Amino acid sequence: MKKIERFIFLSICEITVKNYKKTNYLTYINYCNLFRASINDKSLSAKETLQLISILDYLKKIYGLTDVESIDYIIKFLESDNILDYQRCVEMMEIYYPKSFN
Fold first, then answer.
1. Are 78 and 1 in contact (CB under 8 A)?
2. Is 16 exposed, middle or buried, given 0-12, 13-18 or 19+ CB atoms closer than 10 A?
3. Of 75, 53, 54, 95, which is closest to residue 5 (Cα–Cα)?
4. Single pTM value for the model
């Protein structure tokens, strides 16, 4: 995995963790699995569509990715075995840099 992919995955995780905390899902991994299934099945709810658009916009702004490239990275992230590791990193950053997450 390239270093840039790790940064992209961390960015995706930041947004998905924020979105997850606004839902009633019991676990972050469950949220990610259902979000991935909705993307793969092309059966996104209105809320999921807005969440996906926010991720796409962010990745376009920060990394200059096209929507197709962003979707590929989002799916790779949601299928990776390291989702919980990225979640821990984001939660640590929230603790040490809370003003960045407001």
1. no
2. buried
3. 75
4. 0.90
User: Tens digit of pLDDT for each residue in 86-101?
Assistant: 999 999 998 888 777 6
Which amino acid does the sequence have at 41? Answer: D
Angle formed at CA 82 by CA 23 and CA 66, multiple of 5 degrees: 75
Instruction: Write down the residue that tokens 């699995």 correspond to.
Output: 33
Cα dist from 85 to 25, 28, 29, 50, 91, whole Å: 19, 12, 11, 25, 10
Parse the chain into domains and list their residue ranges.
Answer: 3-101
What are 72's two structure tokens? 């590929």
Q: Is the pLDDT of residue 32 over 70?
A: yes
Cβ contacts of 89 within 8 Å, gap of 6 or more: 10, 13
